[in-house]
């Protein structure tokens, strides 16, 4: 039970101190799970991120569930998911109850406009940390850039990009194995 409480508290802290959604949470999750508590290796964390990203739903919730499951099966998944979701739920309750009446206030509007670049910075930091941790070979960097271009310019669904990448990877590795034989 002590471990479950620690999982909950860790993910609750992540949920409280992250503004900007799931991608902004990733550097904090990595710092807590890999660097600080050493619950997972960097490779395990990257594998979890790959599955979390390719699964339906919010990446922070998916990541917390997968980390929790890896640490303590179903109970771990439940405690981590509730931990990361509870702050947002409580904050929304607070906003609806106390702040909603101030939504047209110029100061409140300016505060939210000021938070936007910080959120972009957090997402950029997450991207950089993923890049460093992944130790991508040049061909994989090219594939990453092509995927980004396809998503941004052509507006193709990320689902199709991920499925294509998965099938190409399977085919490539199968060919490589056959050559080695």
Output the radius of gyration: 19 Å
Structural class: mainly alpha
Per DSSP, the total helix count is 7
What percent of residues are in strands? under 5%
The biggest beta sheet, please? none
Q: Tell me the overall shape.
A: globular
H and E order? HHHHHHH
Instruction: Count the beta strands.
Output: 0
**Oligomerization status of the protein chains:** single chain
The percent range for helix content is over 70%
End-to-end Cα distance, whole Å, is 50 Å
Mean pLDDT: 86
Protein described:
This protein has 181 residues and is mostly helical. The chain is built from 7 helices and no strands. It has helices at 2-16, 22-36, 42-54, 59-99, 106-134, 138-154, 158-180. Helix 2 packs across helix 5 (106-134) and helix 3 (42-54) crosses helix 4 (59-99). The longest helix has 41 residues, at 59-99. The chain starts with a helix and ends with a helix.
Helices and strands, with pairings:
Elements: H1 2-16, H2 22-36, H3 42-54, H4 59-99, H5 106-134, H6 138-154, H7 158-180
Helix pairs in contact: 1-2, 1-4, 2-4, 2-5, 3-4
Question: Short summary of the structure?
Answer:
The chain contains seven helices and no strands. The chain has 181 residues and is an all-alpha fold.
What tags apply to this protein structure?
single chain, about 85% helix, about 180 residues, mainly alpha, 7 helices, about 0% strand
């Amino acid at each position: 039970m002590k471990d479950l409480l620690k999982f909950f508290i860790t993910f609750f802290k992540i949920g409280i101190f992250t503004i900007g959604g799931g991608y902004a949470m990733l550097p904090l999750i990595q710092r807590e799970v890999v660097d600080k508590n050493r619950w997972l290796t960097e490779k395990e964390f990257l594998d979890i991120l790959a599955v979390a990203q390719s699964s339906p739903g919010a990446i922070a919730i998916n990541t917390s569930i997968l980390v929790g499951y890896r640490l303590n099966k179903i109970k771990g998944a439940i405690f981590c998911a509730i931990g990361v979701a509870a702050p947002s739920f409580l904050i929304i309750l607070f906003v609806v109850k106390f702040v909603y009446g101030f939504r047209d206030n110029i100061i409140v509007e300016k505060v939210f406009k000021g938070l936007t670049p910080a959120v972009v910075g957090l997402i950029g930091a997450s991207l950089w940390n993923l890049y460093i941790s992944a130790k991508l070979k040049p061909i994989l960097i090219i594939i990453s850039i092509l995927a980004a271009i396809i998503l941004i310019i052509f507006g193709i669904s990320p689902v199709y990009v991920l499925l294509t990448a998965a099938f190409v990877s399977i085919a490539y590795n199968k060919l490589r194995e056959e050559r080695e034989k």
